């Protein structure tokens, strides 16, 4: 994108925001963890199906935001590719396009774990770069390993700080006290859900999604059950909400990763984040107020709740 003339901060912010869709569109580790932690009766299949419409809504909203900014700033427009050229262009690209296919088939088919799939992806990428695209050589491996170590250290440092904050929350009993306070304020499901959303958005600023889920699921599930909120609906709202925390400073891990790869400062990327974060919050409000956006596909395809 930078080579084509797009701003570095814009490119990094867009990539970070688009990555939020990863845990929403199945297969999703956070949805599996929620399904296992929320108790019996919460179908992981229903959770997976429930994530499709919110994922599509997020993708469309990010596309609209990116289009609006691109037109406003007069970013470059590529010429349309003639249909007759698509087969010729597809063959060289097919090697790279096979990587997500291999990962999805391996993980969803139970052939490999998520960690093992990452290893397979690295080996596959090295193979096609060495022998198919010929863009890698033995001289370039060492700088890549150094950069990988630096990127990994950055990510682990942020996660360590987030985990420490989560430990402090857990031992202080703050989440349980706040959940009891929210439950005491109203019996209206919509009001309760919107208040929980505000609480989760604040928590997501300081914590990674998975540690936050382990701490908050046992606390919040009884509250939403008491007012009749569907647990599949709540699961998608919770995961979507906490994943927005991946792009909110100061612990937005995706911001650090994408800024590092784009070669821009975090401040520059954060200034470009507003429209994309706003699009995510808008989708969060939609799926919170209209449960059918989450529950329609599970009801249609697997008869959930019938």
Please provide a written account of the structure.
This protein has about 300 residues and is mainly α. It has one domain (about 15-75, about 145-300). Helix content is about 75%, strand content about 0%. It has 15 helices and no strands. Helix 5 runs antiparallel to helix 6, helix 8 (about 175-185) runs parallel beside helix 10 and helix 11 runs antiparallel to helix 14. The longest helix has about 35 residues, at about 140-170. The model has no long low-confidence stretch (mean pLDDT about 85).
Q: What fraction of residues sit in β-strands?
A: under 5%
Portion in helices: over 70%
Tell me the distance between the termini: 47 Å
Give the tally of β-strands.
0
Q: Helix-strand pattern, N to C?
A: HHHHHHHHHHHHHHH
Number of helices: 15
Main beta sheet, described? none
């Amino acid at each position: 994108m930078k080579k084509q003339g797009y701003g570095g901060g814009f490119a990094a912010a867009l990539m970070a925001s688009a990555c939020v869709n990863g845990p929403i569109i199945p297969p999703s580790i956070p949805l599996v963890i929620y399904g296992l932690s929320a108790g019996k009766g919460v179908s992981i299949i229903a959770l997976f199906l429930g994530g499709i419409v919110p994922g599509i809504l997020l993708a469309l909203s990010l596309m609209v935001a990116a289009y609006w900014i691109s037109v406003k700033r007069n970013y470059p427009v590529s010429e349309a590719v003639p249909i007759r050229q698509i087969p010729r262009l597809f063959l060289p690209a097919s090697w790279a396009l096979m990587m997500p296919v291999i990962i999805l088939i391996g993980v969803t088919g139970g052939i490999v774990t998520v960690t093992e799939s990452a290893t397979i992806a690295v080996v596959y990428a090295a193979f096609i770069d060495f022998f198919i695209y010929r863009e890698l050589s033995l001289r370039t491996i060492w700088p890549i390993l150094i950069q990988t170590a630096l990127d990994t250290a950055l990510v682990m440092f942020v996660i360590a700080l987030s985990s420490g904050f989560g430990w402090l929350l857990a031992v202080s009993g703050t989440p349980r006290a706040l959940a009891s306070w929210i439950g005491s304020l109203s019996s209206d499901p919509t009001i309760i859900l919107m208040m929980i959303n505000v609480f989760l958005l604040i928590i997501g600023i300081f914590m990674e999604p998975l540690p936050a889920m382990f701490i908050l699921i046992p606390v919040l599930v009884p509250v939403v059950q008491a007012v009749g909120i569907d647990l599949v609906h709540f699961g998608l709202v919770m995961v979507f909400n906490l994943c927005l925390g991946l792009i909110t400073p100061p612990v937005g891990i995706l911001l650090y990763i994408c800024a590092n790869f784009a070669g821009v400062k975090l401040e520059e990327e954060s200034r470009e984040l507003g429209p994309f974060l706003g699009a995510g919050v808008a989708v969060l409000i939609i799926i919170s107020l209209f449960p059918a956006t989450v529950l329609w596909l599970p009801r249609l395809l697997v008869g959930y709740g019938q």
